[in-house]
Amino acid sequence: VAYILQNNLLPALNGDAKTMNFLQEVVDIMLAYIVESFDRSTKVIDFHYPNELLQRNNWELSDEPETLDDILISCRATLKYAIKTAHPRYFNQLSTGLDMVGLAADWLTSTANTNMFTYEVAPVFVLLEYVTLKKMREIIGWQDGRGDGIFSPGGAISNMYAMLLARYKMFPEVKEKGMSSVPRLVAFTSEHSHFSIKKGAAALGIGTESVICIKADERGKMIPSDLERRIIEAKQKGYVPFFVSATAGTTVYGAFDPLMAIADICKKHDIWMANSMTWNPHKMMAVPLQCSALLVREEGLMQSCNQMQACYLFQQDKQYDLSYDTGDKALQCGRHVDIFKLWLMWRAKGTIGFEAQIDKCLELSEYLYNKIKDREGYEMVFDGKPQHTNVCFWYLPPGVRYLEDKVEKMKRLHKVAPVIKARMMEYGTTMVSYQPQGDKVNFFRMVISNPAATFEDIDFLIEEIERLGQDL
Amino acid sequence: VAYILQNNLLPALNGDAKTMNFLQEVVDIMLAYIVESFDRSTKVIDFHYPNELLQRNNWELSDEPETLDDILISCRATLKYAIKTAHPRYFNQLSTGLDMVGLAADWLTSTANTNMFTYEVAPVFVLLEYVTLKKMREIIGWQDGRGDGIFSPGGAISNMYAMLLARYKMFPEVKEKGMSSVPRLVAFTSEHSHFSIKKGAAALGIGTESVICIKADERGKMIPSDLERRIIEAKQKGYVPFFVSATAGTTVYGAFDPLMAIADICKKHDIWMANSMTWNPHKMMAVPLQCSALLVREEGLMQSCNQMQACYLFQQDKQYDLSYDTGDKALQCGRHVDIFKLWLMWRAKGTIGFEAQIDKCLELSEYLYNKIKDREGYEMVFDGKPQHTNVCFWYLPPGVRYLEDKVEKMKRLHKVAPVIKARMMEYGTTMVSYQPQGDKVNFFRMVISNPAATFEDIDFLIEEIERLGQDL
């Protein structure tokens, strides 16, 4: 106890100046970092290799406490070597930027330090989740915004929930009796879909071989006729198609699967598809990480699928309306409060504010596309305008551009993006993702979700790629 | 775009006074809330029924943006109706209190706004996770701290990971082929264990009927002989026992299962038990929510169990040591940074600081036990000193205490705790949990994890129970 009292951090006594000064000092460090993050003259990243970074600071944990001054030093060091995800030239992921209202809301969430499982312990946050999920369902277009939903720790878990619900809807006995009580189930998804569909199938005991990948067209959209063919084929083998995952904005191409055509096929074959939707506000809506919702059309299904009615958590003899105790819908017991940052940002921007912010990112993507589509040394991975903010392209340095041996050219081109990316990180000037796809060698995948980015930042990216890649 | 610029929240331009003032105002609101939270003269909760709370404020989301002043009003309203989980008289959960260093660290985590999936996007946090997991494995006692692990969104998910790994270890083909490729698996857990074991079994396609509940003794500890009997019985039926979950501190009684005896049985029958451990620093270590780790003894197992090698996320031709790209071990894709608050608190307290803090909570529990064990009107749910901070007891108001009809007495007693709890919330003076267990009617379960609590707060709890319950 001596050590706690010595540091005098708890309790934060009324007027405890030392505690309040400490918190304010951390705030000042953060405010300086925020200003710096948006400043184009600072580095996106101060990159060091793992072993080097391990040695640049003392990160070890020991028996004895450090002083509060040491703690402040650790805070500064942590931010010094962090990626500035808010930097207008950080294009590495679809979750970039730092919204000031979202940030404030996340700070407040930490301060409230509670759990989503019952109304009793999170009255306001439970209601805000209720209000927000309803609003989201209205936007999806479900009648009167009816249905259900939950905020989960990321899109992969939301997708897993969807698969879990689809299976339970078709075979409710699976909850008690397991997969051995049901016929062989098969799920379908685009060959361009997110890897979480297969991860979910592996975890749920369905198996990755029961996830059938449907062909996509050259722009990355699932081909409905191939889907129907594979459904019929699966049925002929005696398998039971139970789940189709369609994607609105694939990871690499940003492709939108033809949702209506797929929904029609699913309706015809009685397969789960438009019954749920994963919606990640931490992506294009730029809500701080993490914020992902699964919306479900049928009321009551999540509850019956997941509930275990633990009497020590969900007492049935409490004084208030127990339908607000949403915790038993979840796979989690404790569930982090991810709702407040979305709700507060929505209040600050309104729906039209989100719309404007996303439109701006789309505009920047189109600007990039127009800039490079006919530019010497660039080749687009697929024809036509960007389908979302994703712009996929190769940069061919002069030494690769004119090679006549196609095999050699592809071999060399495959190595270009990784080298340019490594150099971007060494210089710390910008970051953009790359990957191969199918038989296509490594290409850049540009995505834009930071409303702080401008046309000039796009110009900079292109100049930087050329500067760093011209000798390759 | 006009609306974003109008609110001028993004970008946070260098010296953008409006943005900085807004953030500082939110900080001031939070600092005032913190001081208030530790002040015993304030309410733990300003309780309102859900419908009433929905009407006390405008919580709706609309097309148009609100002003920044409205946003500040929303922040104040949210905290006004929140539970003060840091209040020294809030005993409702095992995650209470508000550690100032942990809070500062969580604020900083929000400010860094990144993801745990690769070293590329979270260099410092990935290293801190590495350092901290190793330290935790050393404390568990695994040789040289070797092994693996991951921070997951809560203990229920950590437990699900453990079950997933145990299944994969025994039948690696389950990943591709699903549960239909393996014999009927059965898991074992105490009848007093957390409901997440059954939830996990339902989700993983194992089924809740394949979770066999082992008898606990009167103090809530799993009975090893019953475990072995049920394992042998399951084998005789042709089932495959693959997983035993033992608990160190059960939810209600705080009981510690006899880990050594259970481990011996598991070793003998080749069943997963001491191979992994779920450790929730957001409970007794009082780290802000959420912070849960799964520690795994075998290196490489998590990776092979969960990896999908999505080339768009885990490029294999990057410049640094790719063993630091830990994301493919996880079921999640994006993973929230839960490590920094634990790491920074550990630095601030040292291991001995955590020890002192937990010892203090244990001391308070023993004080409570000693105070009520012979006090008139109280009855302990089981004999003997508390096994952890949990103290389980009935309060019998005078009107119930002397009833001779046992059935009537139990019926009346069952209603006492819910009424007292509802009154606690109405008055906002304190909160403590209650529940029935087996054939035992509703009793109070006291737990203490807030180092800000004192002997006087325990005295207050008892006085308050008597004040609110004497007329029942």
TrEMBL record, chains A, B:
The protein's UniProt keywords, in alphabetical order, are: Catecholamine biosynthesis, Cell membrane, Cell projection, Cytoplasm, Cytoplasmic vesicle, Decarboxylase, Golgi apparatus, Lipoprotein, Lyase, Membrane, Neurotransmitter biosynthesis, Palmitate, Phosphoprotein, Pyridoxal phosphate, Synapse
Q: Which CDD domains match?
A: DOPA_deC_like (cd06450)
Broad class of the protein's primary localization? cytoplasm
Per UniProt, what is one Pfam family of this protein? Pyridoxal_deC
What GO cellular component term, any one, is given?
A: presynaptic membrane
For molecular function, the Gene Ontology terms on record are: glutamate decarboxylase activity; pyridoxal phosphate binding
**InterPro entries membership:** PyrdxlP-dep_de-COase (IPR002129), PyrdxlP-dep_Trfase (IPR015424), PyrdxlP-dep_Trfase_major (IPR015421), PyrdxlP-dep_Trfase_small (IPR015422), Pyridoxal-P_BS (IPR021115)
Regarding the membrane, this protein is recorded as: Peripheral membrane protein; Lipid-anchor
**Which one GO biological process term can you cite for this protein?**
gamma-aminobutyrate shunt
Q: Where does the record place it?
A: Cytoplasm, Cytosol; Cytoplasmic vesicle; Golgi apparatus membrane; Presynaptic cell membrane
Documented EC number(s): 4.1.1.15
Required co-factor(s) are:
pyridoxal 5'-phosphate
Quick one: signal sequence residues?
A: none
Q: Into which EC class is this enzyme placed? A: lyase
Where are the N6-(pyridoxal phosphate)lysine modifications?
A: K283
How it assembles, according to the record, is:
Homodimer.
Family, as annotated:
Belongs to the group II decarboxylase family.
User: What is the role of the protein in this entry?
Assistant: Catalyzes the production of GABA.
Q: What is this protein called?
A: Glutamate decarboxylase 2
State the organism's lineage.
Eukaryota, Metazoa, Chordata, Craniata, Vertebrata
Gene for this chain: gad2
